Amino acid sequence: MPTTVFVVGSLNADQLLEVPAFPAAGETVLASDVLITAGGKGGNQAVAAARAGAAVVMIGALGDDAHGVLVRGALTESGVDTGWVRTADGTHTGTAVVAVEAGGENRIIVASGANARLTRRGYGRCRGRPRGSGSP
Q1: CA nearest to 98, candidates 45, 46, 58, 39
Q2: Residue closest to 43 by CA, chosen among 63, 13, 69, 16
Q3: pTM of model > 0.70
Q4: Are 60 and 9 within 8 A, CB to CB?
Q5: Running along the chain, 136 residues long, what does each successive block of 10 average in pLDDT?
């Protein structure tokens, strides 16, 4: 029986932009490519643990938007139990805009969105939930 890992953390839609150089104040730089993917420190840890063979339960919050659907789907596809990932009505999913220079350096701007609504309240019964049992 694999170890169960509970991950409590942020869930974001990452918007990665490839740029030749970071813009100076007031300057506009054109990105050569954009990729929107599931991310967030918590989400990335949950996927890594699942890929390593652990049973993973993610505890977090998503917005009631298309990015929330994207992130939840990516977690589920990676084998992460999202039964304790809540949908926070009336807010957006956390978003990270990641500008990556040609040399690999990056700059990140994060809007917390639903992550800011993640509290301890309502999660005390998390232990022992059956896999795939849906939202609490």
Answers
A1: 39
A2: 13
A3: yes
A4: yes
A5: 86 97 95 95 97 95 97 98 93 97 94 91 54 44
